[in-house]
Amino acid sequence: MLKKVILMCSFAMLFPGQGSQNINMLSSFFQKKNNIFKKTFNEASEYIKFNLLKLIQEGPKEKLNYSEYTQPAILTSSIAIYRFWVERNGKIPSFMAGHSLGEYSALVCSNAMQFSDAVKIVSLRGKWMEKLAKKKLYQTKAIIGLDQKIIENICLRFSSKNIYIASINNKNQIIISGKKSSIEKAIISFKKNGVKNIFDLNINFPVHSILMKPIAEKLYNILKLIKIKSPEIPVINNVYAKKEHSSHLIKMALMKQMYNTVRWSETIDLIKLNKVFIMLEIGPNKILTNLNRNQNNITSFSTNNLKNFLISFKIINKNYEKKKNCISHRC
Hints:
Layout: H1 2-9, E1 12-15, H2 36-48, H3 52-58, H4 61-64, H5 67-87, E2 95-98, H6 102-109, H7 115-133, E3 138-144, H8 148-157, E4 163-170, E5 173-179, H9 180-192, E6 197-200, H10 213-223, E7 235-236, H11 247-256, H12 264-273, E8 278-281, H13 287-291, E9 299-302, H14 306-328
Helix pairs in contact: 1-14, 2-5, 2-7, 5-6, 5-7, 7-10, 10-11
């Protein structure tokens, strides 16, 4: 009976990656007294010796968009929201998953990784990526409404010229990255094959492509030095779209996600395969929530501001108690 209750009341927490940042993000949360958000941002700022709170509140936007600051800012936002959820005695999810950078957030919230280690690592990760962006040789684009096989074949045609599938977000949205010159040529082929839309993600490095492997190797040298435990809540990783418990395998997955495709669509499918159809995005935007919008069997909530957080909190926690009581009374 208990297993049945858990299945019926379960939900997954999803953590976003780079691109979900904006000036004044989470502003509605900072109005509370004894604010856990201010404490979390101040804590992160101490770890990386930079005032993240001032940056997200005052800008400038250009600096916030530097990966060196973007990545710790998004990570810290997610950790702060999760801490607020826990402080209010919110229900614990059955699964966690993070899109790219968001995998670090998931590992921290599942008590597999220390917040201090994660903030320092993603700041370094972003700094190394920013060096590639300064070369102005790379682009990242979202391809909307074109069959995955067609995109794969076009990318394969240009593979010697460095163009790759960076992320499979769902059947309608696939992200590509690589050399700007190659992507511009591939776009012509996408249009000829009836693509619905193509838009720029404002990420000027070859995210999740083999071109990132040198950075991944530097990252792994850092990961080897830190402690990572088995997650207390199952975390689905980007590379294999599966749960890992071994410290070594988790570190390998974090390293490999740098130069491999993010299998986000498969991640969501795995969560659904486990009879979980409620998804809660823990972050400063609604990017992952919007990706789930067209899936009829998924109910998605966001926590990007205080209003949405309170709505999500009320629905998920009341739903849990209602179904639990219903089953206990055999209604």
